[in-house]
Design goal:
Blueprint lengths: L1 H29 L2 H8 L1 H4 L10 H11 L7 E3 L8 E5 L2 E5 L6 E6 L4 H11 L8 H24 L14 H14 L1 H15 L1 H12 L22 H11 L4 E6 L6 E7 L10 E6 L5 E5 L6 H14 L5 H33 L1
Length: 353
């Protein structure tokens, strides 16, 4: 049994090794994706805090003045005092100083570095309808789950944690593999289990709702016809309507609809440390009526569990401390793959020698 498990552990690791390295390397970066995004665009992303921020309507007017005739698709207005607002235009986003309305710079649309890292992690940059890249990475996550559990079983009789030198010896790589694996086991297990939940969400998410006896809230597909000669209420009134509908949740993003749509507002509670937020609202653009409101605190039980799973996987659940741990766990995956291949290669060479 032990020999069979060892061979499974070895050959599955060798087969999926490249994908494990990709998952680990990209995951370590993605743990700090929002922070890195600000750093990579530091020239425009950061502003000197002022006394008070301008209304979104004035921010939009400033952008419209610089880019006449272009439709504004939405606003991102993080509450941090030193971050610029982002205004979405066709094919790009504009950074604006929220205190002065000054247009600071333009962020082109398309795939930047962090977007590529994200898509590499999710689907190997393969964007087709069949989504084969996602299937490959999801199964690679399942392999990591198996390797974590089988690795502890194989380690248990020896319980070796000390790393012995010299570094070029097979013993060194074996010790390093064991030490890193057992020290990061709990985090790797969580990372793999939550990743598998996300990767196979077509199956796991319905199972979560069945387990909790809940149903997801459905977004409305149609919206009330606008009153005759009605004009949109504007983004600022829509944000205030959203703020009143879910007290305590701070809106940070709003999408501007076409003539027949509704404002979509994203918000987050103080305990929600996920960059994308977990509270969503739809506001009628002509009447200001809230058509849909789902706060992360009162969402169906299944939704809350799905959200929690994602927050744990990304490290957002406890903020910076959990991000650091998940980033280090992702790097441990890379180390495990490297040390495992080094052990196998040295053993292979010794047999040939």
């Amino acid at each position: 049994m032990r020999r069979v498990l060892f061979n499974l552990h070895l050959y599955l690791a060798l087969t999926a090794g490249v994908f494990i390295v990709i998952l680990g390397g990209t995951g370590a970066i993605m743990a700090f994706e929002p922070e890195l995004d600000h750093v990579l665009h530091w020239k425009y992303a950061y502003v000197e805090p002022g006394v008070s921020k301008l209304p979104l309507g004035e921010i939009g007017a400033a952008v419209a003045k610089s880019y006449p005739g272009e439709r504004i698709g939405g606003y991102t207005f993080e509450p941090a005092p030193n971050l610029a607002f982002l205004v979405a235009l066709p094919g790009r986003q504009v950074y604006v100083n929220p205190y002065t309305g000054e247009v600071l710079g333009v962020r082109p649309g398309g795939m930047d570095f962090l977007t590529r890292v994200h898509q590499l992690h999710l689907r190997l940059l393969i964007r087709t309808q069949a989504d084969p890249g996602k299937k490959i990475m999801s199964w690679a996550g399942a392999v990591i789950l198996f390797l974590s559990i089988s690795g502890v079983y194989l380690w248990w009789p020896y319980m070796q944690v000390k790393v012995r030198r010299p570094w070029w010896s097979r013993r060194f790589w074996l010790d390093a593999h064991n030490a890193v694996g057992i020290c990061s086991f709990a985090f790797l297990l969580v990372l793999a289990a939550t990743g598998v939940m996300i990767g196979f969400e077509e199956t796991t998410v319905p199972a979560v709702y069945r387990m909790t006896g809940s149903q997801p809230m459905q977004l409305p597909r149609t919206f009330p016809a606008p009153p005759a000669a009605a004009r949109p209420i504007g983004v600022d009134r829509a944000v205030e309507a959203a703020r009143a509908a879910i007290p305590g949740a701070a809106p940070f993003q709003i999408s501007v609809p076409g003539p027949k749509g509704a404002y979509m507002v994203r918000a987050r509670f103080p305990e929600d440390l996920t960059p994308g937020g977990r509270s969503l609202l739809l506001v009628d653009q002509y009447t200001g009526k809230v058509l849909f409101a789902q706060g992360s605190r009162t969402a169906p039980a299944g939704t809350r569990l799905v959200n929690l799973n994602r927050a744990i996987h990304t490290g957002d659940v406890f903020g910076v401390p959990s991000k650091v741990m998940m980033s280090l766990a992702s790097l441990a995956l890379v180390m495990q793959a490297v040390s495992g291949v080094a052990m196998w290669w040295k053993k292979l060479r010794s047999k040939r020698g």
